[in-house]
Amino acid sequence: MKGLQLGWALACMLLFAAAAAAQDDETARAERWKDLRQTLFGDRPVRDGAGKIALEAPERALDAALVPVAITVQNPKNVKALYLVIDDNPAPVAAHVTYGPAGDPESLKLRVRVNQYTNMRAIEETLQGELYESVRLVKAAGGCSAPAGDYDEANLADMGQMKLRPVGGPAPTEGFEAQLLIRHPNFNGMQMDPITRGYTPARFLKSIDVAYNGEKAFHLESDISLATDPAIAFRVKGPRKGKLAVDAADSANGVFKHIFDLAEQGS
Amino acid sequence: MAAARRLSMGLAGVLQCLPLCVFAALALAQAPEPQGFWTGAMQGETPPTLSGGEVIHTEALAEITARGGIILVDVDSSPRRPANLAATAIWKPLAHRNIKGSVWIPGAGAGDLDDAMNGFFRDRLMALTGGDLERPIAFYCHPRCWGSWNAAKRAIGFGYRNVYWYPDGVEGWQEAGHPLVAAQPEGPDQAER
Asked: Does the CB of A27 have a partner CB in chain B at under 8 Å?
C-alpha cells in the first residue's frame, strides 16, 4: 500500500516535472521570437494572421534537410512581401520575397533545412506595412549537417541549370503557378566532406529574381536555410504564354540566368 | 470447415513468416554497425547496437542521472557562420541547450579526429572519470546522429568499460518532458559564433 502511494507520488512529480519542462520550452520559444522580431521588424507588431495567411509544414519531418513548406495568402492583392522564418535555425530568415506587378503572392512553396525542433512562421507584409503571421511547430533535427544530396565540391559542373515545371491544370488567363528548380548544392559550411573529412566551404544562393514578360514577378532573398537543389513554386499574373526570366546569384559570385519561353514549352 | 482450415493455415503461415517480416523491417530501418568509426554523413540511419557498449533510452537514463555518478557527454556540432553571408542577413545561432550536468564537446564524434581533438577528448574523459575506467559515461547528440555513436565507440577504445550510447538525443530527452539547460562548448572545434 505504501509502495503504491509512493508510486503515485512519484508519478505526480514526474508529470509535474514534464509540465514544467514543457513550460520552459514555451518560454524559451517566446523569448527567441521576441528577440528575432525585434531584430527583423523593430517595434512593429506582428499580429495573428488567422484568416489572412496560412503555413503548411509537416509536424514531424524525417528528412530535416528537405522539409516542404507551403504558404498561402487569402488577400494577395493587399500583400507586398512574404517572410519565411525558421526561429531556431542559426540563420533564421529562410526567405524574404518582395513582389512586383507580375507576381502573385497567393501561394509560395519551398523546401528548407531545419536544424532543430523549432517554430516556423510565415509572415505577410501588407501594402499598408502591417505584418501578419501564421506559426507552426516543426519537429525535425539535423538539417544543417546533413549532406547536400549527391554533390561534392569537385562536381559542380551542372550547377545553375534550371527547369520550370507547370503546376495545376489548364492555363487560366488570370495567372498560373509554376515550379522553378535550380541545380545548386546550397552548401551551408556545416556539411562534412566524406572524402577530405573537412567542412565543405559554404556556397549558397543569395537571391533569385523572376520577371515575366519584362515585368518583375518577385525578388527572393535567402541563404543557408534553403534546401539543396532549391525548388520554388510561385504564381505569376497573366496568361501562360510569354517569357519568364530567372536571374539567380550565389555567395561565390556565381550568376545563373535562364529564360523560359512558356509557349514553346507547351506549358 | 475447409474454410476454417484454410483460415488457420493462412494464420499459421502469417505467424511463421512474422519473425522474418519483423527482421526484414528492422534490417531495412536500421544500419549495421560499421567496422571502425562511421565516416559517412553524420545524419542518417544509425545501428540499433554498439559493440562493447550499451544502448540506453530515456527512462533508464533519467533514472541513472537522478541517482548520479554517470558522466554525460554531448557531442553535437556547433553552428558555423558561413562565409559570404549577406551583410543584411541575420546570424543568430540559438544558445545551445542540453541535459543538465553534461559536458559539451563539439566535434568529438566526427569519423576522423585530428591529434588535437583526439588528445583533448581523451584527456577530458580522463579528468572527468578521474582515470576510473569503470565510471559510467553516456554519449548523445540528436536522433539519427552518428556523432554520439562514434564518440561512444571511441571511449570504448580508450578502455572505458561502462559506456552508454543514448540515441534518442536531446530531442528524446525533451519530448519525455525533461528539461534542457544552456551549455558552453569545450575543446578545439569551437566554431566561430
From this structure: no
At residue A33, what is the residue type? W
B22 occurs within a structural domain: no
CA-nearest residue to A139 within chain B is B171
| Nearest-by-CA chain A residue for B44 | A146
Answer whether A39 sits within 8 Å of B81, measured CB to CB. Answer: no
- Among all residues of chain A, which has the CA nearest to that of B81? A189
Interchain contact, A189 vs B43, CB within 8 Å: no
Whole-prediction pTM: 0.80
Query: Between vectors from CA B179 to CA B177 and to CA B182, what angle results, nearest 5°?
Result: 150
How many domains does one find in chain B? Answer: 1
For chain A, the domains span: 1-43, 46-265
A12 touching B (Cβ < 8 Å): no
A144 touching B (Cβ < 8 Å): yes
Q: Cβ distance A185 to A151 under 8 Å?
A: yes
Highest mean pLDDT pick, A114-118, A243-247, B3-7? A243-247
Q: Number of residue pairs across A and B with CB atoms under 8 Å?
A: 116
What are the chain B neighbours of A189 within 8 Å (beta carbons)? 80-83
For A46-265, CATH number? 2.60.40.10
DSSP B72: E
Is residue A10 over pLDDT 80?
no
Beta carbons of A250 and A206 less than 8 angstroms apart:
yes
CATH of residue B45: 3.40.250.10
Are the C-beta atoms of residues A121 and A76 closer than 8 Å to each other?
no
Taking 60 as the threshold, does the pLDDT of residue A209 lie above it? Answer: yes
Q: Would B111 be classed as within a structural domain?
A: yes
Amino acid, res. B133 = L
Instruction: Express each pLDDT in A238-265 by its tens digit.
Output: 988 899 999 999 999 999 999 999 975 5
Is B4 domain-assigned?
no
pLDDT for residue A21 = 66
Strand partners, A237: A175
Q: What is the pLDDT of residues B44-93, one digit of tens each?
A: 889 999 999 999 999 999 999 999 989 999 999 888 888 888 888 899 99
Cβ–Cβ of A36/B40 closer than 8 Å? no
ipTM: 0.78
Q: Which has the closest alpha carbon to B76: B130, B133, B150, B135?
A: B150
For residue B177, give the chain A residue with the closest CA.
A18
B112 within domain boundaries: yes
